[in-house]
Amino acid sequence: MRIGLTGGIASGKSTVSLYLASLGIEIIDGDLLAREVLVLYPEILAYLKDTYGDLIFLEGQLDRRALGRIIFQDEKKKKAYLDVIMPKIIEEARKRLKKAKGSFVVLDAALLFEEGLDQDVDVTVTVFVPYEVQIKRLLQRDPLTVSEAVSRIQSQMPLEEKRRRANHVVDNSGSREETYQQINEILKSLGFGEIKGQEIEKKKKEEK
């Protein structure tokens, strides 16, 4: 069973992904792939160096926050960057889906629907929170101004649209226990099998 997991920035997708991993499910992490392709395909870094120079490099290393500040404020720059990096991320994601050995594997991808990767999985799950919660959590998490936070959120497909497209939705606006319970119910409906209550308790202890 190949599951596509998506959500918006600060929606809690990583929380869901970590819980799924704690159940022994293999995770293909799109954020990690975005970092790995920079090593696998040096031409991506060469493009960024030629385009932005020292603006996004710190002591020879890519400053991802600096890059984000630039591309999320300019739709043309964002599109140009995605046109370079996304084909490689998609290529690697598809390779790893094919190589996955477990009966359940999760492709954790923020741009699952935008890049058509929902066609490569059996079911899709959107992690959802209301817009107001998303803004609040993003400002608490990252050193951004309100306008920067709004720009980051608006640069993605609206969560309402992702919720509409998904086969399953996890409402992450409540407690973690409530979120975990929703995940358990989805997995049960997909034939994952019994999930013992201590899995949630174990996760809670690890997070303290």
TrEMBL record:
It catalyses: 3'-dephospho-CoA + ATP = ADP + CoA + H(+). Keywords: ATP-binding, Coenzyme A biosynthesis, Cytoplasm, Kinase, Nucleotide-binding, Transferase. Its main location: cytoplasm. CDD domains: DPCK. It comes from the Bacteria. Pathway: Cofactor biosynthesis; coenzyme A biosynthesis; CoA from (R)-pantothenate: step 5/5. One of its GO terms (biological process) is coenzyme A biosynthetic process. GO terms for cellular component: cytoplasm. ATP binds at A10, S11, G12, K13, S14, T15. InterPro entries: Depp_CoAkinase (IPR001977), P-loop_NTPase (IPR027417). GO terms for molecular function: ATP binding; dephospho-CoA kinase activity. Belongs to the CoaE family. This is Dephospho-CoA kinase. It comes from Proteiniclasticum ruminis. The lineage of its organism: Bacteria, Bacillati, Bacillota, Clostridia, Eubacteriales. The gene is coaE.
